[in-house]
Amino acid sequence: MNRFSRYGGTKSYIASKALQNDVNVAIALGRPLLIKGEPGTGKTLLAASVAEALETELLTWTIKSSTKAQDGLYVYDTVQRLNDARFGDNDISDIKQYIKLGKLGQSFNTDRQVVLLIDEIDKADIEFPNDLLTELDQMQFYIPETGETVAARRRPVVIITSNSEKELPDAFLRRCVFHYIAFPEPAFMEDIVRVHFPDLETQLLQEGIKAFYRLREIDELRKKPSTSELIDWLRALVASSTKTKELAQDLPFLGALLKNEQDYHRVAGPPAAGGNAGGGRRSFAAFR
Amino acid sequence: MFTEFFYTLRHHRVPVTTTEWLTLLEAMQQGFAGSSLVGFYHLGRSLLVKSESYYDQYDIAFRDYFTGLEVPEKVFDELLRWLSEETLKLDPQGVNLESLPRYDWETIRRMFEERLKEQTERHNGGSRWIGTGGTSPFGHSGVHPGGIRVGGEGHNQSAVKIAAERQFRNYRKDLTLDTRQIKVALKKLRHLRRTGTRLELDIEESIDKTCRNAGEIELVFHPERKNDVKLLLLMDAGGSMLPYARLVNRLFSAADSLNHFRDFKHFYFHNCIYDYLRTSMVGGERMATAHILDTFDSSYKVIVVGDAHMAPFELFMEHGIIDYYDSNDTAGIVWLQRLEQHFRNIVWLNPMPPRAWRHPTISAVGQVFPMYHLSLAGIEEAVAELTRLTH
User: Fold this and answer.
1) Cα–Cα distance between B267 and B237 in angstroms, integer?
2) 20 to 30 A from A119, CA-CA: which of A169, A258, B5, B268?
3) Pairing status of strand A148-151 against strand A99-101
4) Are residues A163 and A198 in the same domain?
């Protein structure tokens, strides 16, 4: 459309038109792009794909429950400095060498525009996103220990994923471009799967996808299978050279699709039934 | 421009702010609407709506706003194109949000109107799209496309169609409810306090302090931080609750599996709370309600779940209980009032739709407790009420 259209998906990652546009909007406005969606719809992979398309480096900051905002900026390694003071021969008056930049700091401190992925931001404490507001807005921060300011020479492309484990603060949300990756329609799913299995027999692919969506329609499932599980499952089908015909009667390798024990037994029949394939066939048929 | 759309969104309770609206204008200026209403639909959604649970409201607002307008596709797209090409003479950097608000709405409006005037002139001379009053610039001054109410289809229709499909209706907060969502909502029920005398050594902090002291050891202690919230869940397992059994079960399993509270206890009752509660849904031990009031101090936060839908005598009369083998010397409503007086934070969650709450017993119970709908939005409100400091 214009000079801003830079991202259009990559060979290994198919992005919908709306998603492509949102990525480009986020890049142009210099805003973080917040991605939500069902698990397994490729939230994390998007960042890699954007980095690939922009031909730049990807920095990944994986958030854990104990992660603090400060960790992303820099860490002052006082332990190393103390050690050096006692046993080393470094010049310990130079504090700079003990300042280690975190992922966010690194993404500022580079000459090229990099992609920074802040993965699963909802894992951290509720206040975590708020602690990063200024840094993400102004793309700079101050290190009191050295009196230096680290400022981004090129605003990094910031992609943030969330699984909605916790609500994100409003002030943080206001600054983001938001995209919800809706679960792909069967036709779009076929395109996605094609990327992973270019040589897959069309009939097997279509039947596999059909069975997959039938499974997803079962409301009682605690964890519906997602794209990544479908791909794993198809891989198993290919490896075992399952025939399309077999798929119509039974679902082999059900464990690749359903990871929750209760879900598995709901579809495959109760474990007390001796775990025979016949039970699975019956109850799956009942759900159609 | 389209300012009315902003208010339509707010009218449909999409929490849009001015900051986000300005960001949208900025993005449109850079051409991101892609000169089409479909593009505008997606762009607006990603910049104005920050949770999929509001997508449906956005769709409705979009449909309502744009359906009535029937803006001719060409006019609309043209406008968007101008927006992208001829900037509104904002700061060329543009990206800097702080610079934006300086342009008040009137200015932007006027600039836009000028564009619009130019547009009518361009298309003038019998363009059937523009109404007869076309000579006056202000005839179409409706900066809001509301001013250009002329027939038309095309792009416009298709974006409205997308909106009208409302494919995100299942993501709405006031409709959907799964265990995980409830957990997220209940997690807000927390009151972290450093309490007690049990101290724990903060190793990180100690090392840091020590190193900053050039090796002089300094130990840092602090009391443990614990969630102080104790939760009591009272659930109606009466016959009229059967249709909601799954919903209540989800709420229970969310609270039970959360492992988040200092204490979590639950009891069941039938239709209304009388002299006794039960420890399980069917049968179970009887537990005197008076005993519960003695055992659980007033700091427990209480959620009562029930439809409160019963015959008036069940609520207001002594011996109104309908269970054949039970009797009650005290009317149900009195027990409810006692509960309300005892606990500082107590709410009632009702699975019945709020429009049905005018029923006599429901409204009577609703006068005793703050009552919320058993939906995600309702639970969130209830949690906010529970965390409020009272008395």
Assistant:
1) 10
2) A258
3) unpaired
4) no
Q: Do A178 and B46 touch (CB under 8 A)?
A: yes
pLDDT surpassing 70 at residue B72: no
Predicted pLDDT of residue B364: 92
Domain count, chain A: 2
Domains belonging to chain B, first-starting first, are: 3-171 (no CATH), 196-224 (no CATH), 228-387 (3.40.50)
What's the CA gap between B338 and B328, in Å, rounded?
15
**Whole-angstrom distance, CA of residue B364 vs CA of residue B343:** 19
> Which one, of B45, B119, B23, B35, lies nearest residue B81 by Cα?
B35
The residue among A174, A179, A221 with the most chain B CBs within 10 A of its CB, best to mutate, is A174
pLDDT tens-place string over residues B31-71: 887 767 888 888 999 999 998 888 888 988 888 887 755 44
Q: Do A78 and B95 touch (CB under 8 A)?
A: no
φ, ψ (nearest 5 deg) of residue B278:
-120, 155
- ipTM of the modeled complex: 0.78
**Chains A & B: contacts with CB separation below 8 Å:** 83
Q: Quick one: A109 and A196 in the same domain?
A: no
Determine, for residues A174 and B50 on separate chains, whether the beta-carbon distance falls below 8 Å: yes
B216 versus B34: the higher-pLDDT residue is B216
pLDDT per position as a tens digit, A106-139: 999 999 999 999 999 988 887 788 889 889 988 9
What tokens does B390 get?
A: 């009272």
How far apart CA A273 and CA B147 sit, in angstroms, is 69
d(CA A177, CA A32): 6
Of A46, A19, A51, A62, nearest to A180 by C-alpha is A19
* Contact residues, chain A, for B20 at CB < 8 Å: 174
CB-CB neighbors (< 8 A) of B179 in chain A: 222
* Cα–Cα nearest to B385, from B130, B169, B189: B189
Whether residues A1 and B167 touch (CB distance < 8 A) is answered with: no
**Domain range enclosing A41:** 17-181
Q: How far apart are CA B351 and CA B379, in angstroms?
A: 11
pLDDT for position B158: 64
Using CA atoms, how far residue A52 sits from A46, A93, A188, B1, B343, in Å, is: 10, 41, 22, 38, 58
Neighbours of B173 (CB within 10 A): 20
